[in-house]
Design goal:
By secondary structure, this protein is mainly α. It has 8 helices and no strands. The radius of gyration is 19 Å and the shape is elongated.
């Protein structure tokens, strides 16, 4: 069933954000179907933000950054940021595939002849899509603190990369907000509304940092 898609699920013969070439994945995104669609694109933007965060943290390590302080606590924080960001990069790509699988289930749900079956199938897919958007946004919330730390303490030669990471992160969070409200509409649960508020707060924080 559509709501049973799991992170990393692959559809035979179709692209995967984690395993296909970027050119193939974006070519599939350009086609007039929802697999992948905007939710998956949001997750890919999150993966790019995470990758840039990991790269920036890596370039801030002693030996690559001449002004890195001789401070074990500073190094632990830098290494933790790099580790978290690398893990998030992979997780975000899995979420992109999950969202694509769920999004691709909308067309067959709407194509059902029986009105009641169609209504139930669409509701099920919408609930799964809402959940995926929530997962993408919640995963993104780990990055603002990391990027703020790198902007203050990381290698200043990478400040432009931190700015690009913030822009990609904002895109991911904005996409999560849009898809969460579009798929859930007035039926959002209290937990989903709380997530939406956190996403909007993080976007405002990123906008303030950019200013």
């Amino acid at each position: 069933m559509p709501g049973e898609a799991r992170p990393g699920d692959a559809r035979p013969g179709e692209v995967s954000a984690g395993r296909s070439r970027l050119s193939d994945w974006t070519e599939a995104l350009a086609e007039a179907h929802g697999d992948p669609g905007g939710g998956a694109a949001s997750a890919v933007m999150l993966s790019m933000a995470a990758a840039l965060t990991a790269m920036t943290a890596g370039y801030s390590a002693a030996g690559r950054f001449g002004d890195a302080p001789d401070d074990p606590e500073w190094e632990r924080r830098r290494a933790a940021i790099e580790h978290d960001a690398r893990r998030l990069r992979a997780t975000a790509l899995e979420l992109a595939d999950t969202d694509a699988a769920v999004s691709g289930a909308f067309a067959p749900a709407y194509a059902l002849d029986d009105r009641q079956e169609r209504r139930e199938a669409v509701a099920e897919v919408s609930a799964a899509a809402t959940r995926t958007s929530q997962l993408i946004g919640e995963a993104a919330l780990t990055l603002p603190d990391h990027l703020d730390w790198l902007a203050r303490h990381g290698n200043p030669a990478l400040h432009a990369d931190v700015a690009v990471a913030r822009a990609a992160l904002r895109g991911a969070l904005s996409g999560a907000c849009t898809n969460l409200t579009a798929d859930g509409g007035d039926e959002l649960t209290g937990d989903e509304r709380a997530s939406l508020a956190r996403f909007e707060e993080a976007i405002a924080r990123l906008d303030a940092s950019a200013g």
